[in-house]
Amino acid sequence: MNLVELECVDPVACKGWDEIVLSMSHYTFFHTSHWAKVLHHAYRYTPHYLIGRENSGVSFVIPLMLVPSRLTGRRMVSLPFTDFCPPLGNLSADGIDRVLARIDEFHVKSVEWRGGREYFGNHPSSTRYLQHLLPLTPDTDSLYNSFRSNTKRNIKKALSQNLEIVFDNSDKTLMDFYTLNCLTRRKHGLPPQPRYFFEAIRHFILEKGLGSIVAARYNHRTVASAVYFHFGNRVIYKYGASDMSYQHLRANNLVMWDAIQHYAKEGYALFDFGKTEVLNEGLRDFKLGWGTEEKEIYYYKYDFRLKEFVTEQNKEQGWYNVLFRNLPMPVLKLSGKLLYPHVA
Question: What backbone phi and psi angles, to 5 degrees, belong to 57?
Answer without folding.
Answer: -125, 165
